[in-house]
Amino acid sequence: MGKYLVIIDETEEARKALRFAMRWAVASGGSVQILAIVQPQNFNAFGGVQATIEQEARDRAEAIATSAAGNVYSESGKMPNIAVKVGDGDRIVREYLAEHPDVVALVLGAAADGPPGPLVSHFSAHIGGLPCPLVILPGRLPIEELDRIAGS
């Protein structure tokens, strides 16, 4: 019984990673943890405008994570844990893993075309420093194949 961490956003690769982690958790008696990351804003607006922009980004990330959690619950019957954090993705993931030693795998999806994605690139280059295994799902792997592998 372990916890599988998935970083969620609006991409297809994140949805595949979530599905894989959910199927793997069901097969192993584990659970899923969903982490949504809000990137810090790179510009400074007037105080009220800046706060509104940041709150809208956080609200959007929370909505994406909540929707993903609902999908996991409807398919598996288990409600995943959800966290929404603001900051740089690689730093946030490292901190989250340090705070949650019960995570047995970080599950990421690579893009089907072009660069694999910033988190995949970062963590595949720094895998030796992770406290858990890193699972990277190929973007072109069909859903049926993901389900088959996760249920094995």
How would you portray this structure in words?
With 152 residues, the chain is an alpha/beta fold. The chain has one domain: Rossmann fold, CATH 3.40.50.620. The protein has 5 helices and 5 strands; from the N terminus they run E-H-E-H-E-H-E-H-E-H. The protein has a 5-stranded parallel beta sheet with strand order 3-2-1-4-5, with helices on both faces. Strand 1 (3-8), helix 1 and strand 2 (31-38) form a beta-alpha-beta unit. Helix 1 (12-28) runs parallel beside helix 5 (143-150). The longest helix is centred in the middle third of the chain and has 30 residues, at 47-76. It starts with a strand and ends with a helix.
What's this, in brief?
This is Universal stress protein. By secondary structure, the protein is an alpha/beta fold.
Instruction: Give helix and strand order, one letter per element, not per position.
Output: EHEHEHEHEH
* N-to-C span: 15 Å
Q: Major sheet: order of its strands? A: 3-2-1-4-5
- Quote the average pLDDT: 90
Low-confidence stretches: none
Strand count, sense and closure of the main sheet?
A: 5 strands, parallel
CATH topology: Rossmann fold
User: Number of helix segments?
Assistant: 5
CATH architectural label: 3-Layer(aba) Sandwich
Report the CATH C-level class: Alpha Beta
Structural class category: alpha/beta
Helix-residue proportion? 40-55%
Overall morphology: globular
Q: State the assembly state of the protein chains.
A: single chain
Number of strands: 5
How much of the residues is beta strand, in percent? Answer: 15-25%
Gyration radius from CA atoms, angstroms: 16 Å
Q: How many structural domains does the protein architecture include? A: 1
Assigned CATH superfamily: HUPs
